[in-house]
Amino acid sequence: MNDKIVIVTGANSGIGRAAAIRFAEKGYKVIIACRNLEKSKKVQKEIIQLTKNNSIDLLKLDVSCFKSIEDFCSEFKKSYKKLDILIHNAGYFNHGERNYQLSPNNIELSFATNAFGPFLMTQLLTDMLKKSEDARVLNSCTTNIRHFLNQNGKLTLIICRGNL
Ligand SMILES: NC(=O)c1ccc[n+]([C@@H]2O[C@H](COP(=O)([O-])OP(=O)(O)OC[C@H]3O[C@@H](n4cnc5c(N)ncnc54)[C@H](OP(=O)(O)O)[C@@H]3O)[C@@H](O)[C@H]2O)c1
Fold it and tell me: What CATH number does residue 85 fall under?
């Protein structure tokens, strides 16, 4: 066991699940942050059985929804004293989608899930990350994003404050 704490969003499948297992094997305290609790409870159990690490907690998070992010962060702060690693893994990309989907906050769903949500979550957990000696924030992203950009264009970083 070690005293490090890691949050992995969307850890009930794929890369997130694999990452949660690796951290559990190394003795981290792992918080799997998932929107579907029923499905994710099974994965939580599976990770505990597989790794013999009982410090695997499941907290509800829909990363496309500001209210859910706020609830998750205040719940996390009640139970933990610091955060060492925040992994933004939950992702939504549906290239074939015909219908334009909106998040509960009326933001296009992939942008809400992959950009706004992780940004807000990082902001709300910054105080907890500052309590770690070696804090890290990681994003599982994809190089597919380049197809959305003009090859000659520049990516503009927009920092939003205040009314999120
Ligand atoms: N696989 C690849 O080849 C690849 C390559 C490059 C980048 N990536 C990136 O790596 C990440 C994981 O990919 P993956 O292949 O492992 O995908 P995956 O198996 O489809 O897993 C995606 C996870 O994100 C969760 N999720 C989606 N929307 C969410 C939301 N609003 N709130 C909370 N959780 C949400 C899903 O939960 P539910 O079960 O509830 O839907 C699922 O657990 C993604 O960000 C993806 O863009 C993947």
Answer: 3.40.50.720
Using CA atoms, how far apart are residues 97 and 113, in angstroms rounded to an integer?
Answer: 15
Q: Where are the alpha helices (DSSP H) in the chain?
A: 14-25, 37-51, 66-79, 109-111, 117-129
For residue range 63-103, list pLDDT tens digits in order. 999 999 999 999 999 999 999 999 999 999 877 777 889 99
103 pocket-lining for ligand 1 (C-beta < 6 Å): no
- 1-59 pLDDT, tens digit per residue, is 689 999 999 999 999 999 999 999 999 999 999 999 999 999 999 999 999 999 999 99
Cα-to-centroid distance, 94 and ligand 1 (Å):
11
Q: Using only C-alpha atoms, what is the Rg of the chain? A: 16
Give strand pairing partners of 33: 9, 59
* 142 C-beta closer than 6 A to ligand 1: yes
Task: Give domain status of residue 57, yes or no.
Answer: yes
Domain tally, the chain: 1
Q: What tokens appear for 29 in the block?
A: 């305290």
Q: Is 91 in the pocket of ligand 1 (CB under 6 A)?
A: yes
Q: What six digits make up the tokens of 93?
A: 């990309």
CB distance 10 to ligand 1 below 6 Å: yes
Q: How far apart are CA 52 and CA 163, in angstroms?
A: 43
